[in-house]
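Standup notes
- DV: blocked on the single-chain target, sequence here:
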Amino acid sequence: MACDRETLERAISGSPELADYIQATVPANWTAFGTRALQYSLDKLNASENEKNWWSYFVIHKADSVLVGLCGYKGQPNELGLVEIGYEIKADYRLKGLATELVRALIDNAFASGRVQCIQAHTLGEINASTNILVKCGFQKITEITDPQHGKIWKWELK
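- DV (later): unblocked, structure below
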C-alpha cells in the first residue's frame, strides 16, 4: 500500500484510526524504522508532488489483514535512473517469503516506471536474511564500505 500524506500523518501521530483507514490490524512496534522514517517520507511528499510513490509503502499481510512491515524507495530516480530500496518485515512474519515478495514488487514497480535503470540496496556487511533475499532477486554485491555508525556495509545493485 503506497503511503499518501494522510496515511503517513496517521501513522506518525499513532492515530487509533490508522487501522480503520488502512483496513488492517496495526500491531504495536510494527516497524523498527520508527516514525522518523515516516516523517522523512512525509516531508518529501510535502515538498514535491513528484515524490509520490517514491517513498514509503506499508506491507499488509492479506490473509491476516495485519500491517507487518514497511518498504519503499529512498526517493524518485536520479538523473541516471538510479533508485535505492529499503524493506523490513515484523519478526513474527519473517521466514515466510514475504520480504522476497515485496522486494520483487519494488523491483517490478521501479522498472515499470520507465525511469529506472538501476536499483541499489545496502545491507550489513555479512551474510544474512537480507543478503539472501537480494541474491535471490538478482542483485549483485558491488562494493563494501565502512559506515561510522554501522561498520561494514555491502552495496548491492540490480540493472
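- Follow-up: The longest strand covers residues 66-73.
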